[in-house]
């Protein structure tokens, strides 16, 4: 969700106003994704590296997160959405972690869309954490080093409970991954949109889904092989 700061700067506003406008896009896109039948929506709201931003920006973002979780509670529950957190959520201040944990457990039984907020999240950090957990199992004799393959390793990742990533959308025109789901994006389709996040709305999401629908996903195979498979 990139471009909040630039959106504000273009209007001569403080950066936090860009984040506030960005929170409106979050509400609109969450609703649109559910209505369009998206199975899982993950929003990269705060990275492990974002803690190093100015203290007032971090505090303002935390307040917006708290407001979102509290204000959207009823809509999330009414629409069978399951809320998840991804990242080092232990680092979040209690006024964010409390409502987040409460809504996670209140929505745990919901079987509609899963909405994941990536908070204090980093792709490299989550791989390092998975390696530590896997190494502990090896040291305990639960896992043999030779048995560690792709399928077994990814069970240690914090995204193990989520479906594979089909589509990554990055707004604002930047073309970088910026430490997001480095392992999980292996075969994801990447779409970079030249729209600042506070202006990203349902129609843009629909456009991205159409772009995704037009891509040929080969997963290392050839087009001919894929054609043979679809004949079966
Ligand atoms: C990146 O844009 C955006 C963020 C670091 C924060 C994203 C937060 C929100 C959209 C609002 C709160 C979130 C929720 C889930 C309610 P940037 O600040 O790096 O923009 P810039 O590159 O233009 O400076």
Structure description:
This protein is an alpha/beta fold and 232 residues long. It has one domain: Undecaprenyl pyrophosphate synthetase, CATH 3.40.1180.10. 46% of the residues lie in helices and 12% in strands. The chain has nine helices and five strands, in the order ααβααβαβααββαα. The protein has helices at residues 4-10, 15-35, 55-71, 73-78, 94-106, 123-139, 150-154, 202-213, 223-231, and strands at 40-47, 82-86, 114-121, 167-170, 189-192. The protein has a three-stranded parallel β-sheet with strand order 1-3-2, sandwiched between helices. β2 (82-86), α5 (94-106) and β3 (114-121) form a beta-alpha-beta unit. α1 packs across α2. The radius of gyration is 19 Å and the shape is globular. 28% of the residues are buried. Residues 1-6, 19, 22-23, 26, 43, 45, 50, 61, 64-65, 68, 117, 172, 197 line the site of farnesyl diphosphate.
């Amino acid at each position: 969700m990139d471009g909040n700061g630039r959106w504000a700067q273009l209007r001569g506003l403080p950066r936090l106003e860009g984040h506030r406008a960005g929170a409106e896009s979050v509400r609109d896109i969450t609703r649109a994704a559910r209505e369009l039948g998206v199975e899982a929506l993950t929003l990269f709201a705060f990275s492990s590296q974002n803690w190093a931003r100015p203290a007032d920006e971090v505090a303002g973002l935390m307040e917006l997160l708290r407001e979102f979780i509290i204000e959207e509670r009823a809509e999330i529950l009414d629409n069978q959405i399951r809320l998840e957190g991804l990242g080092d959520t232990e680092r979040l201040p209690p006024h964010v972690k409390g409502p987040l944990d409460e809504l996670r457990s209140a929505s745990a039984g919901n079987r509609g869309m899963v909405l994941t907020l990536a908070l204090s999240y980093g792709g490299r950090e989550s791989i390092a954490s998975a390696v530590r957990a896997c190494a502990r199992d090896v040291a305990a004799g639960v896992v043999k080093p030779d048995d560690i393959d792709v399928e077994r390793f990814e069970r240690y990742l914090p995204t193990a409970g989520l479906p594979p990533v089909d589509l990554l959308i990055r707004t604002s025109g930047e073309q970088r991954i910026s430490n997001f789901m480095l392992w999980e994006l292996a075969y994801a389709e990447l779409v970079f949109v030249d729209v600042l996040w506070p202006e990203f709305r349902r129609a843009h999401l629909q456009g991205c889904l159409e772009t995704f629908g037009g891509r040929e996903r080969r997963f290392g195979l050839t087009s001919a092989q894929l054609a043979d498979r679809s004949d079966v």
